Amino acid sequence: MEIRIQREPFLPGAEIDTFSARIRGAGAVVSFTGIVRDDGGRLTRMEIEHYPAMTRPAIEAFAASALARWRLAGLLVIHRHGPLEPGEHIMMVATAARHRGDAFAAAEYLMDYLKSRAPFWKKEFGPDGATWVAARSEDEDALSRW
Predict the structure, then answer these.
(1) How many H-runs (helices) and E-runs (strands) does the chain carry?
(2) Rounded CA gap, 43 and 86, in Å?
(3) Domain CATH code at residue 27
(4) Could you give the number of structural domains in the chain?
(5) Are 134 and 122 a contacting pair, CB within 8 Å?
(6) What's the pLDDT tens digit per position in 10-58?
(7) From start to end of the chain, where are the E strands?
(8) SS3 of 1, please?
(9) Which structural domain, as residue segments, surrounds residue 33?
(10) According to the model, what pLDDT value does residue 69 have?
(11) 126 Cα distance to chain centroid
(12) In angstroms, rounded to a whole number, what is the distance separating the alpha carbons of residues 107 and 103?
């Protein structure tokens, strides 16, 4: 299990190559990379804040729960904080398992929990000023399947 909370950009392809090279006995690696999106073309940047003493333990608990629930050979979570521009990679989850079902399920589980429960606070900046990003009901609804 590797969890990184960082300001620095990352290269998803390089991360997958490194992650896959360390895994033994897995027949599947599943990854998801989140990108800062600008739906309306008005986002100039996003800033992500977090409290390290709260964020790391929360993500570690999600990851430990995934490891206990599915037969995983490895797990990687990267989440950035600080200022980000549209198109930048914001986060990444990778899971490895002997079979694809466990890898896919664990990756989706982690994404659902990260999206709704990870203690990050996002502020979007545009021509009209800054606004905090509110929780979305569909993210909360996604947790019900777990």
Answers:
(1) 4, 8
(2) 7
(3) 3.90.1170.40
(4) 1
(5) no
(6) 999 999 999 999 999 899 999 999 999 987 889 999 999 999 999 999 9
(7) 2-6, 28-35, 45-50, 72-80, 82-84, 89-97, 120-126, 129-132
(8) coil
(9) 2-145
(10) 97
(11) 24
(12) 6
